[in-house]
Amino acid sequence: MSALTDSPAWQALLDHHQEIKDVHMRDLFKKDRGRFERFSERSSGLLLDYSKNRITEKTMGLLGDLARSCGVEEARDRMFNGAHINTTEDRAVYHVALRNRSDRAMIVDGHDVMPEVRAVLEKMRHFCDDVREGRWRGVTGKRIRTIVNIGIGGSDLGVIMALQALRSYQSDDLTPRFISNVDSSHLVETLRGLDAETTLFIVSSKSFTTQETLLNATSARTWLIKKLGTDAVRHHFVAVSTNEEKVCDFGIDTDYMFPFWDWVGGRYSTWSAIGLAIALVLGMDKFEEMLEGAFAMDEHFRTSPIEHNIPIIMAMLGVWYANFFGWSTHAVLPYDQYLTRFPQYLQQVDMESNGKRVDLQGRPVDYQTGPIVFGHAGTNAQHSFFQLLHQGKWDVSMDFIGVANNHHPLRDHQTILLSNFLGQTKALMWGKTEKEVRAQLKKKGVSAERIDQLAPHMTFPGNKPTNSLVLPLITPFTIGQLLALYEHKIFVQGVVWNINSFDQWGVQLGKELARDLAPQITGEAPIMGNDCSTQGLLKYMKLLKKEYD
Ligand SMILES: O=P(O)(O)OC[C@H]1O[C@H](O)[C@H](O)[C@@H](O)[C@@H]1O
Pathway, according to UniProt (predicted)? Predict the structure, then answer.
């Protein structure tokens, strides 16, 4: 047993789980009309309703005790104080400094990082204004019309997601495109039809060593040079990175490099200059509104007591289902088309952060850690995987994200969208008993025999827990709030599980092996030293791939 599973707070929750595991939420709601008031919180216009969870006040009290006994508040303070909480990489975790909108100093290793943070924001502002107002032009003197972000993982997902979410704030003057996959199809299809004279590439890579990004950037540079000559590169390429030397080696002038720092993790870097494409396409003011939204959530997280702290509440509910109910999966279901990319973005933030199997001391853990996260936008998701959520055998905890207002004045659509959001969470909680099904079929005049056949299929167990997050409207501010909320939720879970949420060693091995295998594909190295499956696959691919013969 680990210190965590042996702790009184954990043991109390284990006992409490026995009391509550067979209680139906329908009965909890029938008994308590004040559940919504009791189990909902607000912060700067964002509402969390967590009443449709398998909890009572006692549950929340015990989860609060667990958070307290795991030192969540102290860990939070350590993060906000710039301590090196990323222990395996010996770094601070300080993305909160990037969106610190107060005049507080943010100290890492005895040094206030705010002057550098503000200087980069200023540099971004000048550059964005120059591009947007036509002072920065391509080599032939034409205005920039397309921004191509070349990056992968944290240097791609947040930027795509935010730009898609904020599409209604985008003018037609600048269009964003993205190249991430090393598959040449991504590059070719993205560049197809582009006018080199009006295209600006941003090479976004924290390390500037990521194989995919460097190859894509090299191929994009070749495409540009072929069309406009070598001199065009400095007019059409800028970089965002922490690695000045590598940026220089690639041939980008460091005057056109936007820096950030090793205390910003890749998947937490959308707030840094990695967000340059957002600032270019929407304008720097909008980017800073996103930072304001994140800052509002940071302040809520930093100052609210555990019982009223939205990220902590969501984190502890996740712990409740993962560790006490034993569920492995969490679904995130935004009811807003602009948030279609949000689940995919969150997969990296959550699964790369908390997909860990050893604790901070390097010992294998004896409890479940980060969940499998998936999701898609409602209502489309209802027509694909909701069947399993309602009637399948796997249990899944869920976040529904609803947005009260829409940017488009088509009221009927918004009414139907919101009614589906409410209908689904109600159905998942309440379910439909066999008795109700039978009565309904009888009323419709269905024969007794047919009712016997159909009733089990048409019964819904209910008791499926959902959080409902409600935003007033998709704006840069609310997107900032939402992202920061999930970042902090994931951080809190990592603290409870005593894992390092800020490294990602698990992505290394496959990359290393790929480097060794590439020469075996091209024939520069003999096909050898592999297991027989890899050997067989390699040989078969070579057989099919005539170009390497
Ligand atoms: O920004 P880069 O250094 O190019 O890294 C891009 C991505 O690389 C890896 O996949 C890491 O696991 C990610 O966390 C990171 O975001």
Answer: Carbohydrate degradation; glycolysis; D-glyceraldehyde 3-phosphate and glycerone phosphate from D-glucose: step 2/4; Carbohydrate biosynthesis; gluconeogenesis
